[in-house]
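input
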Amino acid sequence: MSIKYILFWAILLRFLVMPFFFHPDLKDHHQRVNYLFSQGILNIYEFLRKDSYTKEHNLDFSYPPLTYFTLGFYQYLISPILGKDFQKWTRDYSDYRYDTIFIFRYLFSLKIIYLIFEMLTGLLIYKLLSNSGKRKLALSLWFFNPVNLYVISAIGQFDIIPTFLSVLSYFLWIKKKTFISGLSLGTAIAFKTYPLLFLPFYLLTKSDLKNKIIFLLTTLGIYAVTILPFINSKEFQNDVLFSGLSTRIFQLKISILNHQFSVFIILYLLLIATYWFLRSKIPLYIFFAITLALIFSTIRFHPQWIIWLIPFLALAYGESRINLKFIGFFIISYFIYFIFFGDSFLMTGLLSPMSTLYLEIPPFIKIVPDNYQNLMGMFTRSLFAVVSLTVVIKLLRGKTPA
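output
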């Protein structure tokens, strides 16, 4: 199977999905970033807390400034395609938001940027596996797994941007382009802070001290530059730095000698120590993957977060460090988790642009008797946690038989 063949079918499949699936987050993100050029708002966090309309609808923006400016600039670039009614649509919370004849144009246009970053991530995976006989299979895994189609093409989440930048940072690091690698990781953190968890592993590699210092200063410097203009804003602090999204990984705790400790932090520190001893045997990216798998096994997370992990699983598959059976179990348990999540817009509600009747289908958790719904939620979360930990163990064990 040629690369052109893989890319053709990957793009065609996304063209068939992107215009017809709608999640409110896509519209909400662009309702917020619309203020950048429509009103010239730079500090979106303070504006949303003070403007009468946004206060009335309790609107906020819980992402770093670079996300706001990037999506705002992209919206400005495609504004001739979106048309004059787009701003009105983003502010409409009635059923008209589904019935407008322009919705397919909106959805397709707004998701193109994510398609571009998804393709670029695939290119990096292919280049990273230049010595692997499974590089085309790994590329196919990246493009044709249902998680990508669900998160990027159907829901339309910007998490693919920091995902690409994280993979790019790793690619540049192994090419010994330390400064640019740091720029990439710092920019990834400026979109979403989770890649900050990769930093200790970079600093514990066997690279020389000078390169590590350059990498550290570049990474943190880029991140600092993007947030410093907002750092004294209480709204920014509350909505971004110390929001529930940022602190969620610390919520699951265990009591030791009458003191509460974060389960994730304990596991994360153990993982860092493990890397110190195994860094000559196991590639750096494996520990990125394990870090993310530990997050998913210890917290209640959003569906789009899973895309952070998928490129590293594709790399691990390409290097025969995990087989399709384990990846398949991981993906299946992921969808079981969100099928019973209780949000119709994660399943049938995504089809609302084709018919609002899909909104009347209750979440699948409703088929479970009320007395057992919490139990079902605990079961699906526990199942995914167990599968995630199984993936962790598999990745640590090393290469699988061919």
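quick obs: Strands lie at 253-256, 259-262.
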